[in-house]
User: What shape does this take?
Amino acid sequence: AGVLTIGRREDSTTFDPIKTAQNIDLWVFANVYDVLIRVDKTGTKLEPGLAESWEVSPDGLTYTLKLRDAKFSDGSDLTAGDVVFSLTRIRDDKGSLWADPFKVMDTVEATDPKTVTIKLKQATAPFLATLAFPIASVLSKKGFETLGPEKYAETPIGSGAFTITEWRRGDRVILAKNPHFWEADRVSLDGVEWISVPDDNTRMLNVQAGQLDTAIFVPFSRVAELQKDSNLTVHLDPSTREDHLLINHEHGALAKKEVRQALDMAIDEQAVVDTVTFGYGEVANSYVPKGALYYYADNLKRPYDPEKAKQMLADAGASDLTLNYVVRAGDEIVEQTAVLLQQQLAKAGVTVNIQKVDPSQEWDMLVAGDYDVGVNYWTNDILDPDQKTTFVLGHDANMNYMTRYNNEKVKELVAAARTEMDPAKREQMYTDLQKMAKEDVNWIDLYYSPFINVSRKNIENFYQNPLGRFFLEDVVKN
Amino acid sequence: MIAALLKITDLTVVHDDDGGERTLLDAVSLDLAPGEVLGLVGESGSGKSLLCRSLVRLLPSSRLRISGGSITLSGRELTTAPEAEMLAVRGGEIGMIFQNPSSHLDPVMRIGDQISEGIRFHQRLNAKAARAAAVDILAQVGFQDPARHYDSYPHEFSGGMRQRAMIGAALSSNPRILIADEPTTALDVTIQAQILRLLMDIRTRRGLSVILVTHDLGIVAQVCDRIAVMRQGRLVEVGEKRGLLAAPAHAYTRSLIASHPSLPEEDMPAKTEKRQAPGAVPLVDIVKLHVRFATGGLFRRGAVDAIKEVTLRVMPGETVGIVGESGSGKSTLARAVLGLTPVSSGTIRFDGADIASGRAVLATLRRQTAMVFQDPYNALNPHLTVGKMLAEVLRVQGKIETAQIPARCGELLDLVGLGRAFLDRKPRSMSGGQCQRAGIARALAVDPKLIIADECVAALDVTIQAQIVELFRELVERMSLTLIFIAHDLAIVRNLCQRVVVMHRGAIVEEGRSEEVFSRPKHAYTAALIAAIPHIDPDKPLLAPSKMATAQADGVAN
Amino acid sequence: MHRYKFVLYRPLQFLPVLFGISVITFILVRLIPGDPARVLLGTRATPEAIARIRAQYGLDEPLLAQYFYFLRNLADGEMGRSILYKIDVLKLIATRIEPTLMLVLCSMVLSVLIAVPVAAIAARNHGRLADQVIRIVSTFGIGFPPFWLGLMLIILFSVELAILPVSGYGNTLSEKLAHLVLPSLTVSLSLSTVLARSLRAAMVEGLRSDVATAARARGMPESIVFWRHVLPNSLVPTVNLLAVNIGWLIGGTVVVETVFALPGMGQLLVRAIFSRDYMVVQGVAMVFACATVLINFLADIVTVALDPRVKL
Amino acid sequence: MSEPLAAPALGRSGRFRRRGTLAAGVFLLGGFVVLALGAPLIAPYDPIAQDATARLQGPSWLHSFGTDNFGRDILSRVIWGARIDLQIAIIGVIFPFLIGTTLGTVAGFFGGIVDAIFMRLVDIILAFPFLVLMLSIIAILGPGLASFYIAMALVGWVSYARLVRAQMLVLKNHDYAVAAVSLGFSRTRIMFRHLLPNAAAGSVVFAMSDAVLVLLNGAAISYLGLGVQPPVAEWGVMVAEGQAFVTTAWWITLFPGLSIVTLAFAFSMIGDGLADLFGVHE
Ligand SMILES: Nc1ncnc2c1ncn2[C@@H]1O[C@H](COP(=O)(O)OP(=O)(O)OP(=O)(O)O)[C@@H](O)[C@H]1O
Ligand SMILES: Nc1ncnc2c1ncn2[C@@H]1O[C@H](COP(=O)(O)OP(=O)(O)OP(=O)(O)O)[C@@H](O)[C@H]1O
Ligand SMILES: [Mg+2]
Ligand SMILES: [Mg+2]
Assistant: This one.
């Protein structure tokens, strides 16, 4: 019983699942809306959600989902019609930010009140994982139509463990236990408050002073101190976050594979882990996060060797390399990494000019190719590696995540892996992809790091899975 | 003589300097009898104000202190009395009127409240009774509509009304002694006369003793019973007024009386007048000049006619005096002549050319005329040394070669009697008289045909005043200058100018040869002005009822 | 009463000011590189998706047309829709205005409550120890970065002493006030020193002034001289200083809001600037501008009330 | 009431204080200038050299102000930071000062329509949320000192202009201004040579407190993440970055913080001293 208060950096922007791409929103959707298929606590398996069971036709084109008896928070029944409405809306709504991954759906039909049949245009291996994505939340068709999009985005009607009673914009989202949740017995809390506390120090002090039960986004620098506090538990939950150094392959010497490899060798990832993550991270050897589906643990880890790097650069005719390093302002981690890498690269004779810009502008510069290197990170939204792989290596509209990396063989393999339905073969394909990416140095993998949260000792089962979902339905407040 | 009400014996006030002590009041002894009016005169800085303030122990700085002597008020020692007791003495026993009512009245408090405040504190009356008492006092000091004026703020009053309010505040707690420190110096002669009469009235009605500080011997001669003369912190002479004025014992008193600018007796010889050739072009020719200032805000537009229909002609070599009360438009006229203020209608010709006809005429005008300003401190740029200031004028005017500028600067200073040591001085380190002379030197640097001197002696000591007037007289004679001399002190104008113009409320009311205007004023206002001048001869009473009536009718606006 | 007539026509002068501000903000936010659609779409942006969002918010139209819409909306009392929050900007501002307003108000009151007695003590002990101490402390007080000061206050009052809430904004008025104590204190510590310094100077002058001497000469005790004559005369310049500072404060609450997690306009503004939420930036800027203009207007009225000589 | 008179003018201590304040302020500021100029000689370490073995160490003999999370020596960073912060305070004030006094002089002197337009502009800038301007300009031009200076200049001039204009309105009616006109001096000469020097005293005093504000604005911008480019040592950035360690490694924020406060103190003292000297009030 009791109300769990959680401090986070920012407040939500909307509760319309298809109109946001921000983690800050997505992570709360999971508490309010249920999805057809869920990702489990380990972040590696799919499990039944609103769909009790599902079948995929052998050609991989038809999905038949059987719905369980579930109700919306207003007490009305959740039917196949609601599912059809929600899924087609993602694909067709003008304001939808997520239309692309759902364009593969040809038809979505309610074959009976408890059965939904989805026909795809082509076989797509990650489709089930996509359905587990919070944006694929099931909305109440009737509720949406009576409330209208704006009101619904403020006080939605969902079928999740909690329901929104009040949203004080900029301050907090107040959730109450949803009595109609089909797993209502599982929920111990009376409610949850997501409270925005932007300043990291203030957020931590709130938990230390006992004014918040939990706080997320604990800075690495605070972990040791918080661990010493006997009233607190620090959670270091495995995540799919992976930080990397983007390289613009179109800029001068960076087009040469050897130069990129030399840069990789000039970077001491372990030092980054030690200094920036205070040792709570782990050196990355692949773009696929450690522990995630198809992660290739034995992938190459280039040793740190500035001398050799210098030599390689000289051999490649790039001994006086000067790099324009774009840094996102206001992100402590990114800035610290930049300061560290600047010094490391200097040892290999590379001059790094740090250019700090505000986040939207950084984005613009990356897209425009107006940079040489820059640090970024990615957390998976769905458990299938396809989403990230397509963005990073699939040569889509994003120019391979703005790196302008270009390798036809990789491109073909990414496409093939998406439609391959045999898990064993897919695993091999992704292993190959990881090796090829490493060889080409599409970017430089830096480190994996956990989600770090802190809670008071009286809070039990506070857990975040690697995709970022909080299992608040299991949390107990003593 | 009756027993003294206030007895000062060997009062000494010193100033603690960084090094040692400087004696500012040196063993001053003085009494004041009940009902007596004691005039305190002396040069500026002689310690008159300090003496007054010592009586109520309100010295202007913490570095000043009473180091010896005693002050007894009806037998009670004040120099050592506890502060609480002094609270009752101040206001309650000794009331004070200050020279400058504008700065001594609280600008954000209603006049009446400033008076009733003292009543409530000293007489422990409630608000309502205090108000009634204050209204009564306002009536006593001559306010026509005291109930209404109670709620006025100081800025809504004229200078004379403010001074009367100040007197009201001083009287509010029924003091036995009134100290008036130069109560009329800032005021017009006509208003001055009115205030003095008020003081005397109150004295007779209440049986007050008054100490009246002034530097105008005329005033003491008119209103005081006894006169005390101070100089450099010492009391040099004290005595019954007639005796003292008739036979001053001390040399300083004699020089003071000698430099008092009196209107010469009617039989004084007329000034020699340069005859103008009949066809000569007037240097300044003003025809139907009208200057109007817009006042007020967006919705309450009003206008003040500072100059109305003024026609005036000044021939080369003439010395013309312009007199008139404060606000009568004298300065505005001067500025208009020099093209420093926009003219509403009428023409001004300088040496035959209309000054509104173009920049060229204005430029000529500015090369041939110069102005000396009323306020010696404000008229000089505080950031420039006298030498730099003169050099700049010479350079801009370009009448002499650059190489000769330094020499010329020196000459100019010699001419005004300052000496070359002043080349490197800034105005801040100079006395008022010295600043005024620097201002005159600047005017001479232009090598002008015409000098307009706007009340350039009003702020000065009588002795320095006399020096400056003498300087002008010399200059006019030696350099064939044309001089327009503005003042409200008629005696000086009478001494210096051939012709006089009397202004009243923006218009010229009388004009003519000085002797004539002063001896046979045609206009009532001129007569009132002349009558209001306190004469140093106590037997020529200022406060004769008949003349006062005219003065009030014409000169004083409430 | 005619002195207050400016109350009627002064608001007319606000129009050109607000118009100027609308033009400047409009141009300024659009000069900033970066694209709201891309910010909204995040990492997954595709060119088509971007184009769709831009069309939806009218960002693909010519600038002049956009400005025209903005003005037309403004005339209708609307400020467009937030791209980030997807609701009406005015509605969004309405949900965020109170904490900022309260913060400014409380800081102002607190600053005055601190500044007046401090200045009074300093001025009445002019040149003595108390004065020197106050001078030095206040001179130091100006130099503290508010984000650091705020944190120290939290650690002291909320964590160590546990007598005040760490951060946030409450529900009831008393809760809100409790939450506002530390933020206002943070602002006041620098604001009040500025005020106190000005006030002290005016009071020192006032105590030496002829007005004070005249009151003393009427036998008024020092307390009356000070509170009835010196203080009222010293307030006029301070009111204007306060108004100017509040103007700055209104546009600059973000740091304090961030440290104390106050869900106010400052935070909204910064987030809007960073995500290029044009409409919100414009809206907030307009609201801030109106508030500043209003504050100055109030200061004018107070000045006129305090000093009968002033005519506007 | 203990004292006979509670209206003491500047007493003995007063005169000493007047000179003393100014002298002490100048002395302190001079100290910072020496630190800034002599940084390469005085600073014991390279301000940007990292030392992985000496991270987050408290003050010790080796590192008297301790080290930060990169193992950089705080003392050296504080010393080198003096260069940047002095520059911020000075440049951040000089341009607004020059622009403001010039515009204020012209507007106040000419009055009329020039002044009316000018005042509306001032109103607009005063009412314009400073932060929007600051952040926009930084976003347009990119973070860094140049943008900061430009933003400060665009906004900061208003205060100076208002001060000078108000003075000009009074001074231009002063007799010595009228005298200058009557002597045939040109307008430019009167404005800038005769009136401005007298009108500028208040601005000069204000510039001193403004320098403090500029420093603090710089720190606030750093807090929002848009200050100087890393790894440059600047006090505001050091405090802002050190916030993460405020409870664990207090020395990272304390020393740069104290430096800001002390520099602010120096400027305030000079301002006070000048105010006394010129006889103006803020
Ligand atoms: N606050 C002060 N500190 C030091 N010296 C002072 C102070 N006030 C007055 N004095 C000195 O005391 C002396 C007497 O001054 P006081 O004001 O009494 O002169 P006064 O006779 O009233 O002159 P005036 O006719 O100009 O008013 C002067 O030499 C003056 O310099
Ligand atoms: N700039 C102005 N704006 C509005 N009214 C003005 C202005 N200058 C002067 N006046 C008004 O014009 C009238 C004449 O003023 P002026 O200064 O010429 O008088 P004055 O005779 O020189 O007085 P004083 O003896 O006090 O110097 C006064 O009523 C004054 O208030
Ligand atoms: Mg005197
Ligand atoms: Mg005049």
